[in-house]
Design brief:
Pfam families: Phage_int_SAM_3. InterPro entries: DNA_brk_join_enz (IPR011010), Integrase_recombinase_N (IPR010998), Integrase_SAM-like_N (IPR004107). It comes from Citricoccus parietis. This is Integrase SAM-like N-terminal domain-containing protein. This protein has about 140 residues and is mostly helical. Helix content is about 50%, strand content about 0%. The longest helix is centred in the middle third of the chain and has 20 residues. It is globular, with a radius of gyration of 22 Å. The protein has one domain: Orthogonal Bundle (DNA polymerase, domain 1), CATH 1.10.150.130. It contains 5 helices and no strands.
Length: about 140
């Protein structure tokens, strides 16, 4: 299924360097860890196993995230074509990278509420606007 997807649908929608990345992830992670399972037998636990194998191999969290995204794309396509009832990746949180964690931080390093920072004008959570700085005499250089 993976190779069929890579050779057909993926090549029609992404550039060659992306296909190379997808093929590498497929060859090095997805097939060795999950290749012996039937497509219709994959579960959320199998997806978590893939994440664990990548993590235990000492690879960066970004590799786990990439593998999750590639597998999720393939399985989403399988659902759309009637080969699967549900995408098992949808029941598993994708691995988080340190940049993803930083992106969820608000001002001064506080954690934003679930769903991100919200507009305070709507009466929801969010940082208070800072008052304008006090203006005084300008310093003289020299």
């Amino acid at each position: 299924m993976m190779q069929h997807w890579l050779d057909g649908r993926a090549k029609a929608h992404v550039d060659d360097s992306t296909i190379g990345d997808y093929e590498s992830i497929n060859r090095n992670w997805i097939v060795p860890v999950l290749g012996h399972y039937r497509l219709d037998k994959l579960t959320a636990e199998h997806i978590e196993l893939l994440h664990a194998e990548i993590r235990e191999a000492g690879r960066a969290p970004s590799m786990g995230l990439k593998a999750h995204r590639v597998l999720s794309l393939v399985l989403k396509d399988a659902v759309q074509h009637g080969l699967l009832g549900i995408n098992p990746c949808s029941g598993v949180d994708a691995p988080r990278t340190s940049s993803a964690r930083r992106a969820t931080r608000g001002r001064r390093g506080r954690q934003d509420p679930p769903g991100g920072r919200r507009d305070t004008e709507q009466g929801t959570l969010g940082p208070r606007p800072r008052p304008p700085p006090e203006r005084g005499p300008r310093p003289v250089l020299g």
